[in-house]
Amino acid sequence: MRIALVTPCRNKAPYVEAALRSVLDQNYPDLDYGVIDGASTDGSLAVLERYRSRLSFLVSEPDNGMYDALAKGFARAEGEIMGYLGADDLLMPWALSVVSEIFSEFPEVEWLTSAYPLTADAEGRIIRARQLPPPRSRDFFRGANLPGQAWRSAGWIQQESTFWRRSLWERAGGLDPELNFAGDFDLWCRFFKLAEPLSIATPLAAFRRHGAQISSTQASAYAAEALAALKKHGGKPDGWIMSRVRDVFRRLGISRSGRSCAYDSAQGRWRHAGS
How far is CA 56 from CA 17, 35, 128, 207, in A? Predict the structure, then answer.
């Protein structure tokens, strides 16, 4: 399946080459991968130029932030499956083939995310693997995946590990260019109104922590914008007591879970609940 992947970049010279290599070295045969650079001044463009021949497109010009850059990128990128990777983050070597295989095997799946989002340090070493319960719309709109609120949240949905069909993107209206921080969370809000995601038991990507990205320097602003997006789309976060009750029920296996998928090695194929 053709995959449209975009990387927005601005002043990420120490990290962007590793991000590009994590995609390009997979040698996925039907990839439309491009980079939109926001007129970097730190040497990022020199790094990007070395990979121009392997990219579908490379644009470097002033923009109005990450979501403006992504809008430009997705207007150029073609492919039925879509996703984006930050210039300081990493795809796992098997990610594109796994994503393509699952979307091909299950045409009813409209978007998916990993149950095992990874965290890398500044050197690109994997330093954490957490388990995210399979998300579902009912819990999502009750605040179960809000960032920055550990007492309420079962874990936020990692953007780097999330992919979707273009048809869902078009029905949802794409990213909101007016947002500055939590455009991904706002997109999940609109996706959840249209389809339940599939959670797969395979790590797909790593978020790199280095202290200079938006999620580190503007963590409170990101959390506030995500909470505002949830409320705008009709969500109402649970209070402390109900959040604890929901968490206990989930841990005991009493509450219903979202859709999940794992590889059946005996049969040599992916299987998800109900398939």
Answer: 16, 8, 32, 24
59: alpha, beta or left, given left = phi > 0 and alpha = psi -120 to 50? beta
Tokens of residue 120, six digits: 């890398």
- DSSP-assigned letter for residue 209: P
3-state secondary structure 137-191: HHHHCCCCCCCCCCCCCCCCCCHHHEEEEHHHHHHHCCCCCCCCCCHHHHHHHHH
Q: For residues 267 and 274, is the Cβ–Cβ distance under 8 A?
A: no
Closest Cα to residue 250, out of 152, 116, 109? 152
Distance (Å, whole) CA 226 – CA 223: 5
The predicted pLDDT at position 177 comes to 86
Query: Which pTM does this prediction carry?
Result: 0.92
Which domains are delineated in the chain?
1-88 (3.90.550.10), 89-275 (no CATH)
Contact 196, 258 (CB under 8 A): yes
Of the pLDDT bands very low, low, confident and very high (cuts 50, 70, 90), residue 118 is very high
Whether the per-residue pLDDT at 64 is higher than 80: the answer is yes
Residues 116 and 132 sit within 8 Å (Cβ to Cβ): yes
CA distance 159 to 81: 14
Tell me which DSSP letter residue 264 carries. E
Q: How many residues does the chain have?
A: 275
Nearest to 243 by CA among 111, 152, 167: 152
